[in-house]
Inverse folding.
């Protein structure tokens, strides 16, 4: 099993925004970085711009076989299929990690089918942008952000330490550890619910004629309404139960506010606003 | 009736964040600015920091009587009471304007009780911050923002022109005109609904333990959850019918998304996400 040293060779599988940002950050730290992506133009771009040292637009056994650490930045289903087909090319002892946004639906599946001489340690870099592709990658997105290592009982302490070390190399502000279940409950609330809200706000009425009047609040609430529908629908469905719970919590609370407004309950509204203000102030202090 | 020239004297009634920002912007342009606020410390602060030329912590007839243009930056109810008690001190021909966030509930009331030799032209500067008081005022909040003039049939063309001129002096990016009813429908959707959503998201569960994991999306959606409960509950109730309509539109759409998730309708979810992405891209292009 690896721990990171100056000769550690990284392989990025899936060279999009996130994979490309990993590659840039690791290259800046002096590591050797190879990449595999089905999109030839992504590999060409990354080679021409010195983002990677080597690359292939197919599962090249040479690239796979020389990796010490492989980072999967693929959609969940593709990730699982890739492992099934190509894990045979890894050298014994290679450490696998990922950037997938939900965990219970993928971690146990990957660990269940992985060769016994490989180890997969899940991680979730909570960073991103509303643009796609290696062409928009930027290692700056990790600054100030959270990196979560998501181990299961199958993981070794050494793999957990290595995953945290990767988070540090990438420049994340906070590195923490959650179980897959804790992770998915948290992400259902903080990320998926917020995206559902942004989408619903953007689609609930034909609001083209209002574009001239949008202030900061509408812009803030809909920034994340530009969403990769293929990726996010897959993530929502993989985390269906947790997300449904969070959506119900929110819808119930929203409905209470509506009732207070309907009944002209100024005290009730003010009480909610004070709680909201107090909680948000507490969040601000924490950050 | 006034039009603005270099000797125009402004009076700000209510020297909080918005009144203070008006004062700073107008002073920078070289105008004479006086202010009235019941909070003596606000007046003292503004005088000491050169934000106003004169001020009083009571409805000083001298200050009121010398104003060419008076800007009301008060809560709606206080604004209406103030006019009832103190309009007698204005010189004939003084132009009154305001910054109130809702219009139908206040404009007709003020215009209905105003002396016939005064004119009130409503305006809404769509700018703000999550902090309060003249101590936090900042004329920079107007840059890039919208300023809406909200005339009724009682207003003269000259007053409408003057109100727009004020918006230009303050540095607003876009100046437009809406009827009180159009304004309140728009503000119900773009501003009040978004604040309801932010409050409900912040209060729907005790989420203290999640503070370490908040990423940009949760922060974006709850920035406006720090809310002045006295002011916003008053604004919500004044715009009750329009806001209820907007809340129902949003809740219905959110519920459709939930149903799609429950029924594992990936195509339906992706269709909503594509619409949301397309609309938001269109908004981005417009701004």
């Amino acid at each position: 099993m690896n721990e990171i040293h100056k000769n550690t060779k990284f392989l990025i599988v899936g060279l999009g925004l996130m994979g490309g940002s990993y590659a840039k950050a690791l290259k800046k730290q002096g590591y050797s970085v190879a990449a595999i992506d089905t999109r030839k133009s992504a590999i060409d771009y990354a080679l021409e711009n010195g983002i990677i040292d080597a690359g292939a637009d197919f599962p090249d056994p040479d690239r796979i076989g020389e990796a010490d650490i492989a980072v999967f930045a693929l959609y969940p289903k593709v990730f699982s299929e890739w492992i099934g087909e190509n894990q045979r090319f890894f050298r014994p002892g290679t450490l696998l990690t990922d950037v997938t946004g939900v965990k219970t639906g993928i971690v146990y599946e990957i660990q269940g089918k992985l060769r016994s001489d490989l180890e997969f340690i899940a991680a979730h870099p909570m960073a991103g942008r509303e643009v796609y592709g290696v062409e928009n990658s930027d290692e700056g997105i990790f600054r100030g952000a959270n990196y979560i290592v998501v181990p299961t009982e199958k993981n070794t302490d050494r793999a957990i330490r290595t995953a945290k070390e990767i988070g540090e190399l990438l420049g994340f502000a906070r590195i923490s550890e959650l179980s897959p279940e804790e992770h998915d409950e948290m992400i259902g609330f903080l990320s998926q619910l917020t995206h559902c809200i942004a989408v619903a706000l953007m689609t609930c009425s034909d609001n083209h004629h209002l574009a001239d009047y949008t202030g900061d609040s509408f812009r803030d609430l809909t920034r994340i309404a530009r969403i990769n529908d293929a990726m996010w629908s897959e993530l929502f469905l993989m985390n269906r139960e947790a997300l449904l719970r969070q959506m119900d919590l929110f819808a119930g609370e929203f409905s209470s506010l509506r009732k207070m407004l309907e009944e002209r309950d100024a005290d009730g509204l003010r009480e909610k606003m004070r709680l909201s203000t107090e909680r948000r102030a507490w969040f601000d202090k924490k950050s």
Q: What stands out?
A: Chain B has a mean pLDDT of 94. Residues 180-203 of chain B form the longest helix (24 residues). Chain B has two domains: 9-178, 183-286.
